[in-house]
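Rubredoxin (Streptomyces osmaniensis), 53 aa
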Amino acid sequence: MEFVFICWYCGEDYVLVGRQVGWWVDKWRLPAEADCWCCGRTNETPDPPWTEA
């Protein structure tokens, strides 16, 4: 599943793809950090709940 986040530096949206944790629950695992596609800055993944893309 894809989730949308906003870069803390430039304000541009970026998308992270989560891996499902277990097969019976709706829980997802995302990387702790991700680089913005626009400015290249490293962003920390916030705590859930996340916005689906």
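The longest strand covers residues 2-6. The mean pLDDT is 90. ok done for today
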